[in-house]
Structures are given as structure tokens and as C-alpha cells.
């Protein structure tokens, strides 16, 4: 097993969908930080979380979670792995969360954890 060093985040975005290309480019479509549903509960068909990471090393386990500002856990992803060949590698990570339900308005926190350690987060406001 290789040494694992937790990466740092250069960015964390929420968007409607993404397209990744073989040359390493990524297009993010519909970047947002707020949703204004007409009714609650609001069922979001899909939500893409995109992070750009650097400084990691080895195969690093990661997952995303969504919590209400009250710290109530709304959703978490399965644990997956991301590989860093060296400490200078910049890795782009996109995960699509399907069928996320928001029961009421408020502020939600979308967080990235690597090796069970918080790396970064972003806020999502539902009015």
C-alpha cells in the first residue's frame, strides 16, 4: 500500500452537469450556489459536485456529504478512491449525486472528505 497524503482543494463547485475530455479539460454547466424551489420537499434529480485537488499522494479515499446548517446529515456518497501519482499532480474530481431531497428551505453545506478528513466545502442556499 502506498503512502497516503491528504490533498488540498483549489476549488469546489456545484453544477447541473459536466463534460470531461481526454485532454484533461472539463466543462461545467449551470454552476450554482442557490436553488429556489416552488414547493418542498424539493427533489433534485441530479447534483454534480466538482473539485480540483492538488498535493495528495497515493490512492486516497474520498466521499462527499450534504448537511443542513443544523448539522443534520442529508446525504453522503459512497467512499471511492482518487489517485495522485506525485505531490505536484492536479486532479479533477466530479461526482454526480442522484435524487437528493431537500425537505425545507435553509442553508446546506456540501463537504469533501479525504481519508476521513475534511478538505473543503461550499454552501448551498435553498430559498
Question: Main sheet?
Answer: 6 strands, mixed
Shape: globular
What number of domains?
1
Name the CATH architecture: Sandwich
Q: How many alpha or pi helices?
A: 0
Ends apart, CA distance between termini:
46 Å
Estimate the helix proportion, in percent: under 10%
CATH topology: Immunoglobulin-like
Q: Which CATH first-tier class would you pick? A: Mainly Beta
CATH superfamily: Immunoglobulins
The number of distinct β-strands equals: 11
The radius of gyration over CA amounts to 15 Å
Q: Element order, helices and strands?
A: EEEEEEEEEEE
Mean pLDDT: 94
Name the poorly predicted regions: none
What portion of residues belong to β-strands?
Answer: over 45%
Helix/strand-derived category reads: mainly beta
Amino acid at each position: 500500500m502506498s503512502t497516503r497524503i491528504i490533498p488540498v482543494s483549489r476549488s469546489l463547485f456545484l453544477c447541473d452537469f459536466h463534460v470531461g475530455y481526454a485532454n484533461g479539460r472539463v466543462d461545467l454547466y449551470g454552476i450554482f450556489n442557490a436553488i429556489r424551489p416552488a414547493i418542498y420537499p424539493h427533489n433534485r434529480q441530479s447534483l454534480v459536485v466538482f473539485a480540483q485537488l492538488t498535493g495528495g499522494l497515493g490512492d486516497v479515499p474520498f466521499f462527499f456529504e450534504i448537511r443542513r446548517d443544523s448539522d443534520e446529515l442529508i446525504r453522503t456518497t459512497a467512499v471511492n478512491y482518487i489517485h495522485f501519482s506525485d505531490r505536484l499532480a492536479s486532479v479533477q474530481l466530479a461526482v454526480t449525486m442522484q435524487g437528493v431531497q431537500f425537505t425545507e428551505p435553509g442553508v446546506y453545506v456540501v463537504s469533501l472528505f479525504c481519508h476521513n478528513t475534511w478538505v473543503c466545502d461550499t454552501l448551498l442556499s435553498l430559498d
